[in-house]
Amino acid sequence: MLTSPVVLLIVGPTASGKTSLSIELAKRLGGEIISADSMLVYKGMDIGTAKPSLKERLKIPHHGIDLVEPTRKFSVFQYRQFALKTIRDVVSRGKVPIVVGGTGFYVRALLEGLSPLPGADAKIRKKLERELRQEGPERLYKRLLKIDPKRARDIGPHNVRRVMRALEIYLVSGRKPSLPAAPSPGLRELGYCPVVIGLNRDRAFLYEEINRRVERMFRKGLLAEIKKLSKKRLSETARQGVGYKEILADALKTSGLAAEWERRARTQGRDRIKRATRRFAKRQWTWFKKEKGIRWVWWPEGLPTQAVAEFVQNSMLGPLS
User: Fold this and answer.
1) 251 in a domain, yes or no?
2) What is the pTM of this model?
3) d(CA 11, CA 14)
4) Which residues contact 198 (CB under 8 A, 6 or more apart)?
């Protein structure tokens, strides 16, 4: 018999069916959904993030959506604070919290906690940004390799934002970012019983679904959404959204109004978004496959969401049923 409140987490790559499954399970279990997607927090970034529709959100309470303007940064620390408070609120109402998303850092921050890291230092960050402009990302990466080879290898040479953050941590605290530190408590330490479900889909089917999703985004008005966003000073985190960054640079150059930009966006931009989303899904897959404690569910092509939900409910969530 379960004595701790259950927190259900549904993870997996983009377009794997997390949203539809979470809604179906929420109906069956009396649950409320808490997003674990770093782009859904932004207002006005709706189409390119495949944000659950208003109709879907009216059926089941959703949390963690439209929290901040896209001009503001939103950190994993802020997410963890919000999500833990929401989980407490949901449990207090006798409902089941269902955390849904593909942002691995968000999920890990809930399951394992966060290491105490120093906050941003404006002077050091400006210095690093100046070095980036003058010497390029390769120089910064080589610097991190000398300071902390393990952290550098974990990040890789292409994620400039994380390389800079690792250097910032070292320069502020004097501690190598890869060294273990006492983390804040995870869900289990906080008295919850986390159950993590991972969705496993056929790779070819997933890629085709991604292509279809991008086509739907263009039909729904993705370009108009990007034109509107291009007039704002987007935060660093908002600019990283897949589906936006691939064509946002061209929009900024042309004020988002030129016919030539729209023509390029509808052709080359469309294909770039598809490729970038497929690569993103592959990175998500790699991330979650390395995480411990995930109960993987194989979801064959053509199997209805209701059937998958029934399997999960009966085979993995018996005490909740």
Assistant:
1) yes
2) 0.80
3) 9
4) 11, 12, 288, 294, 295, 296, 297
